[in-house]
Every structure is written in C-alpha cells, then in structure tokens.
Write a structure and sequence with these properties.
By secondary structure, the protein is α/β, with parallel strands linked by helices. It is built from 8 helices and 7 strands. The strands form 2 sheets. Strands 2-1-3-6-7 form a 5-stranded parallel β-sheet, with helices on both faces. A hairpin with a 2-residue loop joins β4 and β5. α1 packs parallel to α8.
C-alpha cells in the first residue's frame, strides 16, 4: 500500500480554479485506480500553515538548549506538534501531488511556507561529502499547475524557463531524493474565452486522468 500526500495551495474554490478542478479529477481517478492506497489531503489556504517566525525559532532554540517538550508553554507545544505532524506526514508519504496556480512566475506563498516547514536538515537531507544528500528515496511527485500565460506548451523554449516556481519545486524535491517528477500544466487561461477555457480544461483533465492511472 502506498500513501499519497495531496497538497492544495489555492485560495480559490473549484468554481473558479482550473488547477483545483483538474487536481480533484486526478485524485479521484487515482483513488478509483488504486483503491488500496491511502490518500491524505491538506488545503493550505483553508487550514493555514505554521509560519516560521520568532516564536518557532525561540521554541526550537529552547529544545536545542535542553528544555523538554513538557516544559514549553501550551502554545509552543501546539505549534511544534502541528509542525512535527506535517513533517512526519511528508517524510512517510510515498507519492506527492501538488496542486497550485502560478503566481508571478512562482508558487503561492503558502506552498513555499509549507515546503520550508517540511523540508529540513537531518530529516529530509543530510550534509554529505559532496554537498546535500537527500534521504527520501523511491518516491514520486506530480505538480498540477494553472497559469494565465503559456510556458510549457509554448513554441518559444524561453517561456518554460520563466516558470521558476515549477523549476524550484522540482529542484527542491530532487535535493531531498525525489527524482521522479512530472508536471501537468493548464496554461494560457488569460487569453481564452469561457468556452475555450472549459475545452482546454477538459483536455488537460483527460491528460491528468491517464497519468493518475499510472502514478
């Protein structure tokens, strides 16, 4: 049995989000094709993401200096428990599904906050003789992304280099050992009328359906 971690990072709803519609279709197709697998989902905008701030840093410093978990304040314990839960889920998962829009050529801020929280030294990577070495192996990931412009499906190869969010996600996961990475891109939405957008979304959803069955 595999555990699939689905991370939604979109402040909108399925009514207005192409990536969420396609992502939900991907997950449902996967569920039907692999009923024996466990699917864990997080909606980062609905649930919120613990922010790495002075409170986090102070709590981590206390633990490093010998303060026990029980000696922390109630708020500190709640904060650290949530962080540790997200980290352990990420480490234990076999497959990752990231669902997001492109924001200014990058990822939504809450997805970046989530990645900063779950990808940490000694747990997801260690310092090796030749640099960072990932500890998460034999895992796979897919990024389902919508965008107003056309980047990956453009005849201009330069456009793909502008998608720095997808490139960052692929590189970061690669650093921790997740080398099997795919992308499904619903693009050019700012240039489409409603009918054309719906038709394109349906085409990409069919692509996602095929990938889900083999994922």
């Amino acid at each position: 049995m595999s555990t699939v971690l689905v991370i939604k990072a979109h402040p909108a709803t399925e009514d207005v989000s192409n990536s969420l519609v396609i992502g939900d279709h991907f997950v449902e197709t996967y569920r039907q094709a692999h009923p024996e697998n466990q699917i864990i989902g997080h909606d980062l905008y609905a649930e919120g993401v613990p922010e790495i701030n002075s409170s986090n840093l102070d709590s981590w410093k206390k633990l490093t200096n010998g303060v026990t978990y029980q000696e922390l304040s109630e708020n500190e314990q709640i904060l650290l428990s949530r962080q540790q839960q997200l980290q352990e889920q990420f480490i234990q998962a076999d497959k990752y599904v990231f669902i997001s829009p492109m924001y200014n050529l990058f990822l939504p801020n809450r997805l970046k906050m989530y990645l900063d929280l779950v990808i940490v030294s000694t747990k997801t990577w260690v310092e090796g003789a030749h640099g960072p070495e990932g500890t998460l192996h034999d895992k796979k990931a897919i990024h389902i992304q919508s965008s107003g412009g056309t980047y990956h499906h453009s005849d201009n190869a330069f456009m793909a280099t502008l998608d720095m969010g997808d490139a960052y996600l692929k590189a970061l996961l690669g650093q921790v050992g997740v080398k099997d990475y795919q992308g499904i891109y619903c693009e050019g939405n700012s240039h489409r009328d409603p009918d054309d957008m719906a038709a394109n979304r349906e085409t990409i959803a069919k692509e996602a359906e095929k990938v889900a069955k083999e994922f």
